[in-house]
Design brief:
Layout (H helix, E strand, L loop, with lengths): L1 E6 L3 H17 L4 E7 L2 H10 L4 E5 L8 H11 L4 E6 L5 H5 L3 E6 L4 H17 L4 E3 L6 E3 L3 E7 L2 E6 L3 E5 L2 H4 L7 E5 L2 E4 L3 E5 L4 E4 L4 E3 L2 H13 L5
Helix pairs in contact: 2-3
Length: about 240
């Protein structure tokens, strides 16, 4: 799930933007949520410091101790990869905003059509990033690869087990394996594991453990190859 953060000093604008985003998420089958919606720059920084954040929408002219551009600089010090989108009625700030690795600039008043266009471009950009987001179905479901612990084959479906939740998609290992990053390794006839998220391996029971107490298994046919991968990555389990 993608986490969006919105910061604007106008409560009415916050409510309007939040509803517009939620409508766009629903109409386009986008797995996303407004995780933080606030007028407080400090609340934004506190949230981003302790939560996965994918997209931040900032009003440049915040009536606060800092403006949106200064807040963006502080955000970049915490999270260098999240997408930044600015909103404002002051066109003269556009060039400055883009220097902060800004994805888009939305002039006020913001229309639903303009916002939806930005969100669709955002998804396309995320989907094109190597080793970052995986598009797992035809419903614009994007999953951060770093959040995936393992992928399980369950009859005609694949189950992506992540830190937050499980995602299901009708597909097969043969269809997805070539598109997965190198840290995703087949460890069982029914499992592909993200070796970056392994916290322990029990060789006697052939069990792999992850930091949320979930687990998957190693098949005898795949054990030697998995151990070779561990060695190549310099991993000692």
């Amino acid at each position: 799930m993608l986490n969006f953060v919105i910061c604007d000093d106008n409560f009415n604008m916050l409510s309007k933007l939040s509803k517009m985003f939620e409508s766009i998420f629903m109409s386009n089958n986008i797995d996303a949520t407004i995780a933080c919606c606030t007028t407080s720059p400090q609340e934004v920084l506190n949230f981003i410091s302790s939560n996965k954040t994918d997209v931040v929408i900032l009003d440049i002219q915040l009536k606060s101790e800092i403006n949106g551009l200064e807040l963006a600089e502080k955000i970049r010090a915490i999270n260098k990869s999240c997408y930044l989108i600015f909103t404002t009625g002051h066109m003269e700030y556009t060039l400055i905003a883009y220097k902060l690795k800004t994805f888009d600039y939305l002039p006020k008043p913001i229309t639903s059509e303009r916002l939806e266009e930005t969100v669709i471009r955002l998804l396309d950009d995320m989907n094109g990033l190597p080793k970052k987001y995986l598009k797992i179905d035809n419903k614009n479901t994007l999953v951060d690869e770093n959040e995936i612990h393992y992928i399980k084959r369950d009859a005609m479906k694949l189950v992506y087990h992540t830190t937050e939740k499980d995602y299901e998609a009708y597909s097969s290992f043969n269809k997805i394996q070539s598109s997965l990053p190198q840290n995703f390794v087949r460890c069982h006839k029914s499992y592909i594991v993200n070796i970056n998220n392994i916290v322990n391996v029990e060789p006697v029971t052939n069990t792999i453990f992850f930091n949320n107490n979930s687990q998957c298994y190693i098949g005898p046919k795949y054990k030697n190859n998995l151990m070779e991968v561990f060695n190549s990555y310099g991993i000692s389990k």
